[in-house]
Design goal:
The chain has 105 residues and is of the alpha+beta class. The chain has 4 helices and 2 strands. The longest helix is centred in the N-terminal third of the chain and has 11 residues. The radius of gyration is 16 Å and the shape is globular. The mean pLDDT is 88.
């Protein structure tokens, strides 16, 4: 992960789960990690709405946002039509360092 971030000039801090005090409960655990990391927003895939309890985030002033994976912008892939369900590795092999230009669209 650090190599990919370095290649794409992404400077976001990467930490380990062992850096945090972990509490019980799916949503409580996530909200608590966000608090310890001084996060202001937690972004999750929509599938997590099934079990996520937004109150744990809002009680601590953390914005909870839902991300639609099919909303990723299409980029020129090397073979056939565009496929959404691939990793960043595919984008790097297809677009090189230009991949960073697709993140904020």
């Amino acid at each position: 992960m650090k190599a990919i971030c370095s290649y794409l000039n992404i400077t976001t801090a990467i930490t380990r789960s062992s850096d945090y005090d972990i509490v019980e409960g799916k949503t409580e655990r996530l909200a608590n990690i966000c608090l310890q990391a001084n996060a202001t927003e937690y972004i999750s895939g929509k599938a997590a709405q099934i079990y996520m309890e937004p109150k744990f985030f809002s009680d601590h002033g953390i914005k909870l946002s839902w991300f639609e994976y099919p909303d990723y912008p299409e980029y020129p892939q090397l073979w056939g039509g565009f496929m959404h369900n691939v990793s960043i590795i595919d984008m790097i092999f297809s677009c090189g360092q230009e991949s960073i230009n697709f993140f904020n669209k």
